[in-house]
Amino acid sequence: MSKKVLVVDDDKSILMIAETFLKGKGFSVVTANSGEKALKMADSEKPDIILLDVVMPGISGFEVCEKLKKNRKTRKIKIVIISGNIPEIEKGFDYGADDCIVKPLDWNKLTERLEDL
Amino acid sequence: MSEKTIIANKYVLDRLIGVGKVAFVYKAWDNMLHKFIAVKKIHEDFAKDEKFVDKFRKEAIHTAKLEHENIVRVVNFIMEGSDYYMIMDYVNGVNLEYLLMKCQKRNIKIPPEIAVYIISEITKALEYAHSLKDGVTGEPLNIVHRDVSPGNIMLYYNGKIKLTDFGIAKAGRDSDDEAKDAESLAYMSPEQALCGEVDGRSDLFNCGLVLYEILAGEKPYSGESDIEIWKKAKSASINYKKLESAGVEKELISVIKQLLSKDPDDRYRSAAEMFVDLKKFLIKTGSTESIEKKYHKFIGSALREEMFASEQEIKKDLEKKYELDEESELPGKKEVSNKEPMRIENYFPGEESFSVIRDKKIRRVAALKVLIKVAVVFLLIGGSVYAFFGLTGGRRDPYGSGVQDADYVKKPELRLTTSPPGARVRILDQYSRNILVDMEDEPVTPLHIQEIDYGYYTIQAEKEGYGRISRRMGIQEGFDAEDADIDIENSSMLGDFFLLPFDVKISVDSRPRGAMLYINEENMGRTPYNGTHEVGIYNFRVERAGFEPSGVREPDLEDAARIRGVCVIDTSIPIEKQVGVDYRFWEISESTSTDGKQLNITGYLKRRN
Asked: Which residues of B touch A (CB under 8 A)?
């Protein structure tokens, strides 16, 4: 059974690319373009992994991460943050992220990381 | 009043604290901001090299833009006369090279998480520097450190970890003149060894080498000759079995392998990517205690003596700063008189990357295994006429006229003695040329050199039955001899790479007897105790149930500044020079004979009320 990935990014083009690429690699993919939607979908879709951009308008990726990790229902979901610099990466891990993918995205590497989780 | 060199009317040079290939490093007082800073002065030879100075200046401009908590700040670059100075933050700590050396000597294994933490902090500095853009044009500055090595990783006593010497490395080591000595080769990426183009991934490779060294306890590249090391460096020939036998986890070895990939394309793409894997390792090995706390504990334990010495030094410096304030009110230009002030200090071979910022006592600590103490006695230059008897082949005429000029300033005089005397000495200048003294290439101590050029030298001394010592020494003008604080017998700051242990017999007793003795917090059993220890700094403590330290004499004013009950002894220096002993509680005597040195220490206890 393929892993289900929730991709969260406010950039719709990234969501499209991620969906296409990850589906091609055998993942089941759902997407959300805001932190608010991500919180709802994490509960309803029960993904195995959330690929989460940390910089988003509204609820940031960090907050999403923290809330999901504090919630008994969602705490086991593996969260992979997408970040571009070390201060963000540190903050992401502090908020409970399980892994991090560094921008610019290397899609092949991303796939390997998701498969390893 | 002592004469001081004042730069830009505000930086008062206090004392020399390091000598490297291209610069002297001084501790100095900033009279405007009222704080200590570090000043790097380019060696005269390099200062004459326009190409070098231009690169140095350009890199200083770039480096000054680096404002990051993991980077030692460059605050100014000054040209004064024919001298060039870089003003930097003063580092109250030691470099990683020193920590590695100390841990190796004391058989202390640096835990993998501590090693990873140190490198992860350096990674933050690299990520910042690699991605920095020009504030005006927005163009990437493409700053590459090029010399990430243990000598440039500074460990502050307060727990901060910083990278130093950004850009200087580039100025001093451009792609067309990469340094090819063994020390430099040991930390080179393949592209550096092949004089190719380097980018930030070369710095990541260097980080991998440092991480390897911390974990394996030895440098990744070693060999009988520079060529052999260079061959290994260019092909990234690494023996990972050393890491396996050192018990390093597979995940961490895999991180190191990626860092040390020969092809930059196979390495991490950026410092941020590298950081992710280091952080994941730290999280995985983490416990309830944060890694920062673990690191603090480790450093506090491994560098306990140095921290103690530093505290003493700070007290001294705080008293001194008023004097420096006063000095700095003098006219800005250095005053050169016929009593040309000079100062001699020395440094470790490991400090050749000229980045070591370490106070005198810390260096003393690093010279624990000194066998022969070279005493360098320096004298102020007098106006009298000296006979031809010189290190440099006779008296030097600074004006090159060959005629004794009325303003002629005589070069410093140097005396070298060893204890015991009779050691054969070799003196090598900065180009590794053997200097003849009295037409002999290996003169015997004690020896007297009537005139010596300013510069830096390697002094090697050898005597049958004793270990060889190799010591670096910088001789620089601009310091008052009386203020130089260069009691060499006291400081004994010798290179210690070739030394054999010099043992001191130590007897410890207590009144009453039967107290538990702790040396460096290791339980040594009950007093009386007799043992033989290598030269070093030791912390003694006696404890007996129902007893407490007892004053054996009335405290005086001086005692008020001492820490009650403390007995920290540096066995490499005479007892009258000890600063870590509470004499109200401890009695110490020493004797020296052909058998070596004997220390007798007694701690007094009284029954607790």
From this structure: 123-124, 127-128, 131, 269-273, 275-276, 279-280, 283
Q: Are B242 and B218 in contact (CB under 8 A)?
A: yes
Cα B529 from chain centroid (whole Å)? 34
Q: Which two tokens stand for residue B78?
A: 């000054």
Reduced to 3 states (helix: H, G, I; strand: E, B; else coil), residue B291 is: helix
Helix (H) or strand (E) holding B124: helix B112-130
Q: Which of residues 77-106 of A touch B (CB under 8 A)?
A: 83-86, 89-90, 93, 99-100, 102, 106
Q: How far is CA B296 from the centre of its chain?
A: 21
Pair B194, B250 in one domain = yes
Domain-terminating residue out of B465, B491, B517: B491
Domains and CATH numbers, chain A: 4-116 (3.40.50.2300)
pTM over 0.80: no
CB contact under 8 A, A83 and B275: no
- B477 and B511 in a single domain? The answer is no
CA gap B294, B338 in Å, rounded: 55
Q: Which residue range is the domain that position B256 belongs to?
A: 6-302
Token readout for B256 is 């190191």
> Exposed, middle or buried by CB within 10 Å (0-12, 13-18, 19+), for B241?
exposed
Q: Are residues B136 and B268 in the same domain?
A: yes
Q: Tell me which chain B residue has its CA closest to the CA of residue A90.
A: B279
Whether the Cβ atoms of residue B349 and residue B459 lie closer than 8 Å to each other: no
Is B355 inside any structural domain? no
Taking CA–CA distances from A89, the nearest residue in chain B reads B276
ipTM of the prediction greater than 0.85, yes or no: yes
Domain for residue B566, yes or no?
yes
Taking only the tens place, the pLDDT of each residue in B60-107 is 777 788 889 999 998 888 888 888 888 999 998 899 999 999 898 888
Tell me, what CATH number does B84's domain have?
A: 1.10.510.10
- What angle do helix axes A86-94 and B271-285 make, rounded to 10 degrees? 20
B137 and B270 in one domain? yes
Kind plus residue range of the DSSP H or E element containing A18? helix A12-24
- State residue A7's pLDDT score: 96
Q: Do A93 and B271 touch (CB under 8 A)?
A: no
Do B291 and B282 meet the contact criterion of CB atoms below 8 Å apart?
yes
B146 with B244, same domain: the answer is yes
In a domain, B483, yes or no: yes
- In chain B, the number of structural domains is 3
Domain boundary among B427, B456, B491: B491
Residue B126: closest CA among B183, B59, B58, B207 = B207
pLDDT at B356: 27
